[in-house]
Amino acid sequence: MILVIGGTGRVGRRLVRKLREGGHPVRPASRTGEVRFDWEQPGTWDDALQGVTKVFVMAPNRIPDPALIQRAVALGVEHIVLLSSRGIEVVGDERMMAAERAVETSGAAWTILRPDSFNQNFDEGFFRQAVAAGELVMPFGDVKQAFVDADDIAAVAAATLTSPGHAGHRYEVTGPRALDYAEALGIIAGHVGHPVRYRGTDEDYFAAQEALGKTRAQTEPAVAAFRAIRAAGDHAPTDTVEQVTGRKPRTFEDYAADADWTTS
Q1: CB under 8 Å to 180, separation ≥6 — which residues?
Q2: How far apart (Å, rounded) are the C-alpha atoms in residues 172 and 98?
Q3: CB of 88 within 8 A of CB of 96?
Q4: 126-153 as b/e, with b when 16 or more CB fall inside 10 Å?
Q5: Got the DSSP string for the chain?
Q6: What is the pTM of this model?
Q7: Which of 35, 47, 114, 116 is disulfide-compatible with 174, CB 3.0–4.6 A?
Q8: 22-55: string of b/e by CB count within 10 Å (b at 16+)?
Q9: In whole angstroms, what separates CA 139 from the centre of its chain?
């Protein structure tokens, strides 16, 4: 039995579908899913973990409680696949670094997935409203990111959970080429029916946040993280998707053509 914690999320629900299509027993768990699981309520953990030998987990929006990983191993979990993120050291993401440490020291076999920025941030995530409004303000400058499709991340996760040879690996999961945000939005604009302007400087972001009622001091920590990302330079694509799944990753153009932009 494979437990998918976050089974209703962007990657989790796609992973659940792939595992079921492959005939693998899977238990989706979340606060609102088929099986209830809540990081904040340890009383929900055991029911979700009973009879499970493999777990896919995404850390919560805070430092994760390592007691969950310890409890999973105590109940018989043999392999943990963690959805982390690329470049967490660059921005000092202690939440994800703590999650990786918890998995690596658990005593179970582990695999860590470090994807680049999701394609689906534009149509399912926090950029959707900006696309609809015709302007995205994020201080990434012209740094290029190897945007990756959530379906490809799920495919890599499914392979690591159901085939041998992936224990102890940390995989950087990316799309086939790197794009800056202006290039990505230009591709999207061809499908939403209106231009989508990109404003990518620190001052653009400070101004946008001030318009939302945040002071410059409140915004500075986020801007500092973006500066670190820019200083690290362009993100290089990897061949992880093809090497792990046997198929090439989805292009950003194909993603944009297939996404639902009806309310954008």
Answers
A1: 140, 141, 142, 143, 144, 145
A2: 18
A3: yes
A4: ebbebbeeeebbbbbbebbbbbbbbbbb
A5: -EEEETTTSHHHHHHHHHHHHTT--EEEEESSSSEE--TT-GGGHHHHHTT-SEEEEE--SS---HHHHHHHHHTT--EEEEE--TTHHHHT-HHHHHHHHHHHTSSSEEEEEEE-SBGGGTTTSTTHHHHHHTEEE---TT--B--B-HHHHHHHHHHHHHSSS-TTEEEEE--SS-B-HHHHHHHHHHHHSS--EEE-SHHHHHHHHHHTT--HHHHHHHHHHHHHHHHH-PPPP-SHHHHHHSSPPPPHHHHHHHS--TT-
A6: 0.95
A7: 116
A8: eeeebbbbbeebebebebeeeebbeebbeebebb
A9: 20
* 172 backbone dihedrals φ, ψ, rounded to 5°: -90, 115
Beta-bridge partners for 57: 82
Is 79 within 8 Å of 109 (Cβ atoms)?
yes
Tens digit of each residue's pLDDT (9 = 90 or more) over 4-32: 999 999 999 999 999 999 999 999 999 98
Residue of 99, 110, 8, 12 whose CA lies nearest to 61? 99
140's tokens: 């990434």
Whole-number Å distance between alpha carbons of 247 and 200: 34
Contact 179, 246 (CB under 8 A): no
The Cα–Cα gap between 31 and 7 comes to 9
- Contact status, residue 174 vs residue 180, Cβ threshold 8 Å: no
What count of other Cβ atoms lies within 10 Å of the Cβ of residue 74?
11
For the stretch 203-214, pLDDT in tens is 999 999 999 999
Paired tokens of 220? 């500075």
Which residue is associated with the tokens 């209830």? Answer: 36
